[in-house]
Structures are given as C-alpha cells and as structure tokens.
Structure prediction request, 171 residues.
Amino acid sequence: MRQLNPKTGQTRHFGSSEGVPETGIREVFIDRSDRVWVAAQSGLFRSAAAVPFSGQARFERQAQTGTAASNALSTAVLNNDSEDFLAVIQDRQGRIWASSDRGLLLQTGEGTWKRYTQKEGLHSNTVARLAEDPDGALWVAYRDRDGATRPTVPKGGASRAAILRPVHSTP
Prediction:
C-alpha cells in the first residue's frame, strides 16, 4: 500500500512491518477521525491513529467477534485469516460498515461487531460493495447476480436486517 503526498509527489510504502498486508488489498478508506481502514483478502485492518505523511504508522487487525463468543462463525473468523474483506464505509451516523465474503458487518463498539448474513435477510453472504445514498440509506451490492438491497437496522442494531427494497440486476 502506498501513500501519496500531493504537495511533493513523494510516496511512502506501508506493509507487514506496519501491520498491513503486502498484497490482496481490496479497498482503502479514511474515516472521519482520519484513521485508515484497509479491506483485504486476509482481513480488515485499521490504523491506530491518523496517518500523516511523515511519522510512524501502525495498523491493527480488526477482530470480528460477532455478538457472542459462542457463535461458531465468530470463533472461526477470529481464529482464521481467510475472510476476504471487500469494502468499508462510514455512514452519516458515524457507524463503520464492512463487507466480506461472509456477510455485512457493523461496528457496534470499539472492537465489537455485529454480522448480518442471509440468515438475517441478505440475498447473499458475498457482499461486494457498500454505498450510502443522499437520504442516508445504506445500499449493499453483491458479487454475484443477486443485485442490491437496502437493509435497515433498527436503532441499537437489532439482530435482524429488514430488506426494504430489493433491486435485482438483469443478466
């Protein structure tokens, strides 16, 4: 991963010594706190602080532990580097959402996440892209021909995502 200084044209490299993967990076996102999020084939990473062009940078793997330690999927994710993350977004409410090949994740607190899958109403567990429309609604697009959905999560992050408006792609 490289950082470009637009004033000088210089670049800076980040890799395993800073805690971010050398390859398989899908998306880089900067949140409102100027932390850098990296969605990668080997996991989801976040900088410990803002990353100015000069100075140290350290990235930390985000552990998607789900809602309960006894959740079999959560345990597998916590102990396995094979979850492929595809996108990260921060909605206008300041919530961080991440998409992966195992569903949609909502950060519910520092280090805690809630996972949404087909079980909660998504069309597919392979969520490829995330977007927020001008009205503040979150849109979820899938990798395959499952189209897009607009999930809603009641205040407090209830356990079930209600699909309000499915939009299917045509072949």
Observations:
- The helical segments are 72-78.
- The chain has a mean pLDDT of 80.
- The chain has one helix and 15 strands.
